[in-house]
Design a protein that fits this description.
binds zinc ion, Metallo-beta-lactamase, Chain A
Length: 302
């Protein structure tokens, strides 16, 4: 029987370690990536594959948890260089990979002039190289079966993938952001799709699965699955109350961001975690703006 390898590749986003991961699944014949990162790190990804002796022809599956550019931006660019690869995308995200214009204008509103430097070019994915993945679908890759689990909350176009052979859950952003060697879990809640109720339902789905390890894109693999998910959910809800109260008091956007930053960083100090790496994966600005949008809609504010 062949050995199943699951290997984390650090994409060295903007030159920083521990920001964005891709996972290489390899049985010696068939190779797959779960998450591909943005185009700005795609050359690094190809170099890392070659350094591991993975011939580019062997990479047949590019699976992304959702279409945010830090997870999926490189798909089209990579398909041009990986002749036998297919892209696997959530049904809601798939049209925006074929025609990225709306994805790009939405991201431009958040990142402005930083777009190119952060993410690089976003090449459209040809329809014929796109596999649209249904909820519950099982895909056979690299000697194992990955089960797709529809997990909205962070984004509507989000799947988590359970590797049924190893119990590894590739969780994208629905299981939060956490750095190696720390316990602290930060909820990434960017606008415009944050949906706290949907997120809680997604976490309930994940708790019902036979998960041995959670593989986060930001950043790494963790075995204390139940504690991790409990902490994420508690903080998601706690920050929701914290931001709701400030929004109802009418604080400005910049004050909301600053107050959440002070609050979050104090929590991190108490758990002995360093905020800087977390800020690369999920900065307070987007987190605060995501909650603000969620609450304005929910509370019927303008
Ligand atoms: Zn995301």
């Amino acid at each position: 029987m062949s050995t199943l390898q699951t290997e984390l590749i650090d994409l060295q986003f903007l030159g920083y370690p521990l920001a964005i991961a891709a996972y290489l699944l390899d049985d010696g014949t068939d190779a797959a990536l779960v998450e591909v990162g943005p185009t700005s790190t795609a050359e690094t990804l190809l170099r890392e594959l070659q350094a591991r002796g993975v011939a580019l022809e062997r990479v047949r599956h590019l699976i992304v948890t959702h279409i945010h550019l830090d997870h999926a931006g490189a798909l089209g660019w990579l398909l041009q260089r990986l002749p036998n690869a297919m892209a696997y995308v959530h049904p809601i995200g798939a049209p925006h990979m074929v025609d990225p214009s709306r994805l790009l204008s939405s991201a431009s509103r958040l990142y402005g002039e930083m777009m190119e430097r952060l993410w690089g070019e976003v090449v459209p994915v040809p329809q014929e190289r796109l596999h649209v993945v249904r909820d519950g679908e099982r895909i056979e890759v690299a000697g194992r079966t990955l089960r797709a689990i529809d997990t909205p909350g962070h984004a509507r176009h989000h799947h988590a993938y359970l590797d049924e052979a190893t119990g590894i859950l590739f969780a994208g952003d629905v299981a939060g952001v956490r750095m190696p060697g720390t316990t602290y879990v930060r909820p990434p809640t960017p606008p415009p799709e944050l949906d706290i109720e949907a997120w809680q339902a997604s976490l309930a789905k994940l708790r019902a699965l036979p998960v041995q390890q959670i593989a986060l894109t930001h950043f790494g693999m963790f075995s204390d699955v139940e504690r991790h998910l409990d902490e994420l959910e508690a903080r998601l809800l706690n920050w929701a109350v914290f931001t709701r109260d400030l929004i109802q008091q009418g604080v400005s956007e910049s004050e909301l961001i600053q107050r959440l930053r002070d609050y979050g960083n104090e929590e991190m100090r108490q758990q002995g975690a360093d905020p800087s790496n977390y800020d690369l994966g999920a900065g307070y600005e987007l987190i605060a703006l995501g909650y603000a949008r969620y609450w304005r809609k929910k509370l019927g504010l303008s």
